[in-house]
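Long-time lurker. I teach an intro course on protein structure, and each term I like to show students one example going from raw sequence to a predicted 3D structure in token notation. This year I'd like something fresh instead of my usual example. Would anyone be willing to generate the tokens for the chain below so I can use it in lecture? Attribution to the forum is fine with me.
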Amino acid sequence: MRFYMWHTHESKMHSYKKRRRLKEIHFQPQICACEILGTNSDAQNTCAGIEKIMHKKDRIRARGERMRSKKIYRRVLILLLIFNIIGMVLFIYFKIIKKVPDEIKILVGKEESFDFNMPIKANIVTEDIGVISVNDLKVPDNQISIDMKKPFTLGSTKTGKYNINLKLFGLFNFKNISLDVIENIELIPCGIPIGIYVETDGILVLGSGRITGEDGLNYEPINNKLKSGDYILEINGVKVKDKEDVIEEIQNSNGDDIKLLVRRNKEKITVRVTPVKATDGKYKIGAWIRDDTQGIGTLTFTSTKGDFGALGHGITDIDTGLLMDISEGSVYDADIMSIIRGKEGEPGELIGMIRQSKKYKIGRIDQNTLQGIFGTIDNNYNWLLKQEPLDIGLKQEVQKGPAKILCTIQDKVEEFDIQIESIDISNSNHSKGIVIRITDERLLDMTGGIVQGMSGSPIIQNNKIIGAVTHVFIQDSTKGYGTFIENMVNNLE
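-- Reply from a regular --
Happy to contribute to a lecture. Here you go:
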């Protein structure tokens, strides 16, 4: 008998005499050959034993690989299950966040209906026992539970703010809602064109530019010092009210460093800038600035108390896109002179003439907010307060379907038919909670749909004022956004 073994330098083959057991054999890369010469039974048995060991090791190895594969498979399944659970929870969470608003308004003494159809429980916490009713039943407890998977009604006999705590599946706290019980509000819908003039609170910085100095070199003095959206309040301790004040103080510097008091994101900071003498002999700091703005919009409503609201969105700077901080402002009577029709990719516009004089001043602007501009009516226009008022319609009352808008296209306020196509009561963008489409053929013929200048046109449904037009779809001028009227009346409280 002869043995042949292929192995690495670490493998060894030990010879054993007859009847001795094979103690240790290392096989390295699984290559073994046994050539049997003759009929020696011991040799045959030895070879068979070696093959048996090899097969056993192969089976053990295969079993180990199968076990490892099963472990990996189980781990993958567990990870997939965890990801699915996390995904489901996140999906439900964002769906609830999108569907359920941060604030709910109801009118005192009136039951309001809600149907969120969400797998959540709600607890209303109040110290005023017996003032909140659910499904027409007064709840004599300071903690009221509501199943928001089913339709329900809410009512209150007392105005005030209450806290609603939402629990996912009735177990996990994840969101608080403010329940605001208010008195019934009546507003007078207007729809008249207005000219708007506002002065900024400080001098608005639009951006920076390069200056060519007397030496022929280019300079940018405010680079990395002033930012777009900053407001210059003072120069060297002198308060500046307009662009002329800024120019004067820069010239007075004679090229020396000037100290600017700047408001940035509601914080005041001090910035030092060195003016550069330009080729025209004047000192400059290379800042593009603005101190006022004006435009055409629509008056949304007046209240019987003499307040007004307009636009449905704030006045933003055309260059920075930021909401403008205003020191004072006014709205004036305006005449529509011509119309630029809207079309795909190009929004249209109402071209108007502002009657900017004391005689035609409608009122004073007190607030510029994301929900619109607000102020008080002047005595000259007290007749606006004597028109027929309408009740407001809260978010939960707005329905898909037909409605009307009031606006002035020619020489008088008219009603035009629209369709409310979608409603999002939880939209964090307060000016885009309603999607509307113009269906009135007369308005489509005149304007092509919604055009600039119609912002603020009141939306009427079921004889209630429910909102105001705010934006037009760039690619489809027949459609646009509206804001809920309750977003605007928040600024009257």
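Some talking points for your students: The two ends are 108 Å apart (CA to CA). The domain at 210-285 is CATH 2.30.42.10 (Pdz3 Domain).
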